[in-house]
Write a structure and sequence with these properties.
31% strand; alpha+beta; eight-stranded mixed beta sheet; 22 strands; six-stranded antiparallel barrel; 398 residues
Length: 398
């Protein structure tokens, strides 16, 4: 059976389909509004029975046409130009075991309570996947003119000047604002504390039309509308990649295979600790975040999940800061900056799975254990236009 078979089907052994549909619907209703990082993504449905990849498109704009028309002559037609991005989707999910005694003796409906907890977990998980994908962009602005993340301190706060600078960057790239006339930003509560102290801040309480206020919207500044999220990216101070190793040195890079050869020896345990980590490397003269996909410790090779054009160089470091303080990443972006997989509707791929005690046959001979789970059969997020998003990295008031 294909991994994406029956995308819209919620199944359960011994539980009425309507009950399972209710929990799946609850999961979707809870997840969509809470996934702040995915709210403005270009959506793609999961291709049923079509492999593990999904394609996003970025349209290439036309240049100005300054050549006047000639009498009676129709100029040649223009081609539709687009850049295709192919991304791999992966399944996600977790479950909870519920015993027959828990169901029998407790007054409360544990299924309903656990389903709510799992819906919250699903939301946080998917929002984090999008967040981490968006924070791999190359368009980085370090607050207060600092050269890199390691140089940032708590005094390098998110200020109106940083917002104006980011807006200028987006306008220079011909990035269009959203239909509401604003660029959008996702900001951490700690950064909100500093930003809202400015006289240039327009709080939602001052809006003339309060009927159009969106969930988690805080206010505006310099044509940027801000949305608050406690899940906004925080780069915690880290001294080591793993164990007592602070960094690894890149000897060579193969952009085609997304692989770097390092100079240091690495053990199997170190390789396991490094796999899946977000690390900081240098690309195009700027520090950027990359995800380690696998490590070949015998041949000293590290393969990354993605590789920027031109490859990388220098050292591989932990994503934290050298100054010992947490650094916050505020995303400011316009239309068509990124895309993700649609969770509901046509091609919806979210399931709530309930298996009551006794549904496992010989694996549960006394009918003692059941499970409730959430599962997303395939999900991913990808940056479509790097120049349409600015990541402002900054400190915040303690």
């Amino acid at each position: 059976m294909a991994i994406f078979d029956n995308l819209n089907l919620s199944t359960s052994n011994g539980v009425a389909p309507g009950v399972v549909d209710y929990y799946t619907r609850t999961l979707l209703e809870n997840a969509k509004p809470e996934m702040v990082h995915a709210r403005d993504a270009q959506k793609r449905t999961l291709p049923e029975h079509n492999g593990k990849h999904v394609q996003f498109r970025r349209m290439v704009p036309y240049a100005a046409s300054t050549e006047p028309l000639k009498e009676g002559i129709t100029p040649a037609g223009q081609e539709i130009r687009q850049t295709a991005f192919t991304a791999m989707v992966k399944p996600y999910g977790r479950h909870v075991e519920i015993t027959d005694e828990l169901n029998y003796y407790l007054i409360d409906n544990m299924h309903e309570e656990v389903a709510k907890l799992l819906a919250d977990q699903a939301t946080l998980s998917l929002d984090t996947i999008v967040r981490d994908a968006l924070h791999t962009g190359m368009n980085v602005q370090f607050a207060n003119g600092k050269a890199n993340r390691g140089a940032l301190t708590a005094a390098d706060k998110l200020t109106p000047a940083e917002i104006k600078k980011a807006v200028r960057t987006l306008k220079r790239a011909n990035c269009k604002p959203f239909a509401d006339g604003y660029y959008h930003a996702i900001v951490h509560p700690d950064a909100v504390y500093d930003l809202t102290a400015s006289e240039d801040w327009i709080d939602i309480a001052k809006y003339q039309d309060k009927g159009k206020i969106e969930r988690y919207e805080l206010g505006t500044m310099y044509k940027v509308k801000f949305f608050e999220s406690t899940n906004a990216k925080t780069y915690e101070a880290k001294a080591y990649l793993f164990g007592t190793t602070a960094e690894l040195t890149i000897a060579s890079c193969d952009e085609a295979t997304r692989t770097c050869v390092i100079t240091e020896n690495i053990s199997p345990d170190d390789a396991r600790a490094l796999t899946g980590q977000m690390v900081e490397v240098t690309a195009g003269g700027k520090a950027t975040l990359m995800c380690v996909e696998r490590v070949d410790y015998d041949n000293k090779k590290i393969t990354f999940r993605w590789m920027p054009e031109g490859g990388v160089s220098g050292t591989i470091k932990p994503e934290g800061t050298a100054s010992g303080v947490n650094v916050f990443g505020t995303l400011i972006y316009g239309q068509d900056a990124f895309g993700d997989i649609e969770l509901g509707g046509k091609g919806g791929n979210v399931k709530t799975i309930i298996n009551p005690p006794g549904s496992s046959g010989a694996a549960d001979p006394l009918e003692q254990r059941g499970t409730i789970a959430w599962k997303v059969k395939g999900y991913c997020a990808v940056i479509l236009q790097d120049s349409y998003m600015v990541r402002v990295e900054h400190g915040a008031t303690a």
